[in-house]
């Protein structure tokens, strides 16, 4: 065999190995769901407990989903870890929220969950009616790693 044919076979082997690696990795990329819009409102009965009242994505965060806050800082700005729990306890997701009590504006982010919310990634802009304490979350979500 000539050195030229050995070099060609080596290059073909490298290309074939790279192609195989891409094919192995492709299913994990394909397992991510598309980014979808979501809008929900929630009403809070205490400083640490709220319930989703409306949802544009009831298959993900249905009405009745509960939010449990663990406030680390609450005045003049809320900064809190947050756990969402779907009705019946079928899914949970943990995230972080911030909110200015002066403007009523904030953000919430989630990166992972369990049960029906396994793989949830969500980002929300939060607006608040400071008179009624009804919060509106507007954002996007998707699932990674074979979640919903």
Describe this entry's structure for a reader:
The chain is an alpha+beta fold and 148 residues long. The protein has two domains: 1-30; 36-143, AOC barrel-like, CATH 2.40.350. It is built from one helix and eight strands, in the order H-E-E-E-E-E-E-E-E. The protein has one helix at 3-30; strands at 36-44, 49-55, 66-73, 77-85, 91-100, 105-115, 120-129, 134-143. The longest helix is centred in the N-terminal third of the chain and has 28 residues, at 3-30. Residues 3-30 have low confidence and may be disordered.
Number of separate structural domains = 2
Structural class: alpha+beta
Major sheet attributes: 8 strands, antiparallel, barrel
CATH-derived topology of the largest domain: AOC barrel-like
Strand order, main sheet: write it out: 1-2-3-4-5-6-7-8
Roughly what is the average pLDDT, rounded to an integer? 81
Number of distinct helices: 1
Share of residues in helices: 10-25%
What's the shape?
globular
List segments where confidence is low: pLDDT < 50 over at least 5 consecutive residues.
3-30
Q: Provide the CATH architecture of the largest domain.
A: Beta Barrel
* Alpha-carbon Rg, integer: 22 Å
The helix/strand series, from N terminus to C terminus, equals HEEEEEEEE
Question: Quick one: how many beta strands?
Answer: 8
Beta-strand percentage? over 45%
CATH top level assignment of the largest domain: Mainly Beta
- Taking the alpha carbons of the first and last residues, their distance comes to 54 Å
